[in-house]
C-alpha cells in the first residue's frame, strides 16, 4: 500500500475527489460545444497588454473561433481601452482588416461606413437614401473589456456575472506590487497543434513530467525532495483559478530567480555555477547587473513564494480557463492555450524581461530565449501524440497522482460551470453530460 510522508494536497481539497478523470471531455466535439457556450462565452479571457495600444488610435484584432467572433481592442480619444465586435452595422462586413495598427477611424471596405474609436457610427455614404437612419443606433457592438495589472481581458457576455476584479482578486489580489509594467522587452512564439486545449494546458500545470520530458534541459534546474522527486513546494486551488509554487536550483541559469538583477543571492548563484553547462554558467556570470532597472530592493508580493521557501524559483498561476502566467523576480511568461476546435489549439507564448543595459545582459536574455524555446518544444512534443492516443478511446479514464491536483481542479471547474449553465437553461445536466460524452448532438 502506498504511503505518503507528508499531507496530501487532495486532503486539503476533498471536494475535488480522487476518482480517475474521464477521457471524454478531451475528445468529444459535443462537450467542446458546451465549453464554448458555458465557459468561453461567459468568462473573462486574456487577449493582450496595454502596451500594445499605448496611443490613441492604436488597435489590435483577435480572431477567436472559440467565441465565433473577431474582436477589435483599441484606445479611444479619452485614453480608454475599448473592445468591439469586428462587424459593420450595414451589411456585416469587417471594419478592421489588419492584425494591428493605428487609425483615426474604422472603415468598412464594402460600402464605406465609418466608425469613431468609441464605436459610434460617424459616416454613411449616400446617407439620404436610407429610411430615417439614426446613426446613434448603429455603432459597433461593444464587448465587455477591463484591465488587470496591464493585462487586457474581454468577456463576450454583455453583463458578466462577475467583474474582472471580483473574478481575479480572491486568488490574485496579493499579486499587487509585482512589476509587470517594468518588463518591457518581449519575445513570443505562436503555433497551432492538433490537440484539445485542456490536453495542452494540463502539460504545463504539473511537475511530474519534468524529470522525463525535460531530462536533458531543465530537470537539474529544479529542486528535488529528499527522495529525488520533483514535487512542487505547494499548490492552491480556488473557485476558478489555481497556483503552483516551484523550487529551483539557484546555481542554474533556469532555476535562479535573481539572474541579471543584481539582487540578493545572485552572487552565490554565479560563484556556484559550474562547468556542467558551460554556456549557462557564462550567461549567469556576464548577466550580473545587466538590467536597466535596479531590482536589488525588490520586495515580492505576498502571493509569490507564499511558503517562504529558500530555494523558490517561480510560481505558476493558471487564470481560468486558459491563461498561464508564470512569475519570477526577473521575468514572467504569459501563455494562452486558446481552442480553435475540440482537437485543435492555438498556443500564444510571450516572455517579458526588463530591458538590458550591457552586452552581458543581452547575452543572458538571448540564452534564455533559446533555452525556453527548447523547453517549450519538449513540452509540445507530447501533445499531439497524447491527443491521438486519447481519440482511440482505448482508455476511458486517466489516473492522477496527488501532485497532478491542478489537472483535476481544471476538470472539476469546467464541469461545474457547464452544469451550472445547463441548469440555468432548464436542461438536465446529467442527461446533457452523458449525451456529450457519448458523442451525441446537443
TrEMBL record:
Domain Rieske, chain residue ranges per copy: 44-154
Record Pfam families: Rieske (PF00355), Ring_hydroxyl_A (PF00848)
The prosthetic group or cofactor this protein requires is: Fe cation
Q: Which SUPFAM superfamilies match?
A: Bet v1-like, ISP domain
Q: Please verify whether the record's keywords include Oxidoreductase.
A: yes
Alphabetical keyword list: 2Fe-2S, Dioxygenase, Iron, Iron-sulfur, Metal-binding, Oxidoreductase, Plasmid
The cross-references to PANTHER family, in alphabetical order and at most eight, read: CHOLINE MONOOXYGENASE, CHLOROPLASTIC
The protein in question is named Aromatic ring-hydroxylating dioxygenase subunit alpha
**Organism annotation:** Paroceanicella profunda
Q: What is the lineage of its organism?
A: Bacteria, Pseudomonadati, Pseudomonadota, Alphaproteobacteria, Rhodobacterales
Amino acid at each position: 500500500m502506498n504511503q505518503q510522508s507528508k499531507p496530501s494536497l487532495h486532503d486539503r481539497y476533498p471536494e475535488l475527489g480522487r476518482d480517475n478523470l474521464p477521457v471524454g471531455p478531451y475528445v468529444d466535439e459535443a462537450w467542446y460545444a458546451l465549453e464554448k457556450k458555458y465557459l468561453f462565452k461567459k468568462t473573462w479571457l486574456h487577449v493582450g497588454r496595454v502596451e500594445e495600444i499605448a496611443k490613441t488610435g492604436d488597435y489590435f484584432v483577435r480572431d477567436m473561433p472559440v467565441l465565433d467572433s473577431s474582436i477589435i481592442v483599441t484606445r479611444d480619444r479619452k485614453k480608454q481601452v475599448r473592445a468591439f465586435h469586428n462587424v459593420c452595422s450595414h451589411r456585416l462586413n469587417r471594419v478592421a482588416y489588419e492584425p494591428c495598427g493605428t487609425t483615426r477611424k474604422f472603415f468598412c471596405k464594402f460600402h464605406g461606413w465609418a466608425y469613431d474609436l468609441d464605436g459610434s457610427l460617424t459616416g454613411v455614404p449616400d446617407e439620404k437614401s436610407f429610411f430615417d437612419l439614426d446613426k446613434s443606433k448603429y455603432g459597433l457592438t461593444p464587448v465587455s473589456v477591463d484591465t488587470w495589472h496591464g493585462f487586457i481581458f474581454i468577456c463576450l457576455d454583455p453583463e458578466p456575472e462577475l467583474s474582472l476584479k471580483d473574478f481575479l482578486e480572491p486568488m490574485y489580489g496579493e499579486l499587487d506590487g509585482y512589476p509587470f509594467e517594468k518588463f518591457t522587452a518581449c519575445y513570443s512564439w505562436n503555433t497551432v497543434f492538433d490537440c484539445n486545449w485542456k490536453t495542452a494546458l494540463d502539460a504545463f500545470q504539473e511537475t511530474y513530467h519534468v524529470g522525463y520530458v525535460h531530462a536533458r534541459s531543465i530537470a537539474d534546474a529544479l529542486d528535488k525532495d529528499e527522495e529525488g522527486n520533483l514535487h512542487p513546494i505547494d499548490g492552491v486551488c480556488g473557485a476558478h483559478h489555481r497556483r503552483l509554487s516551484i523550487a529551483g536550483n539557484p546555481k542554474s541559469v533556469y532555476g535562479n530567480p535573481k539572474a541579471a538583477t543584481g539582487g540578493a543571492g545572485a552572487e552565490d548563484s554565479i560563484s556556484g555555477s559550474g562547468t556542467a553547462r558551460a554556456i549557462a554558467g557564462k550567461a549567469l556570470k556576464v548577466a550580473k547587473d545587466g538590467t536597466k532597472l535596479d531590482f536589488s530592493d525588490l520586495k515580492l508580493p505576498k502571493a509569490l513564494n507564499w511558503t517562504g521557501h529558500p530555494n523558490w524559483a517561480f510560481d505558476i498561476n493558471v487564470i481560468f480557463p486558459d491563461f498561464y502566467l508564470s512569475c519570477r523576480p526577473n521575468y514572467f511568461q504569459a501563455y494562452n492555450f486558446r481552442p480553435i476546435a475540440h482537437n485543435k489549439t492555438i498556443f500564444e507564448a510571450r516572455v517579458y524581461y526588463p530591458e538590458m543595459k550591457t552586452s552581458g545582459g543581452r547575452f543572458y536574455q538571448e540564452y534564455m530565449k533559446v533555452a525556453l524555446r527548447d523547453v517549450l518544444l519538449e513540452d509540445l512534443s507530447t501533445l499531439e501524440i497524447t491527443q491521438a492516443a486519447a481519440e482511440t478511446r482505448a482508455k476511458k479514464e486517466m489516473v492522477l497522482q496527488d501532485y497532478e491536483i491542478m489537472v483535476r481542479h481544471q476538470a472539476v471547474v469546467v464541469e461545474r460551470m457547464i452544469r451550472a449553465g445547463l441548469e440555468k437553461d432548464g436542461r438536465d445536466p446529467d442527461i446533457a453530460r452523458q449525451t456529450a460524452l457519448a458523442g451525441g448532438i446537443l
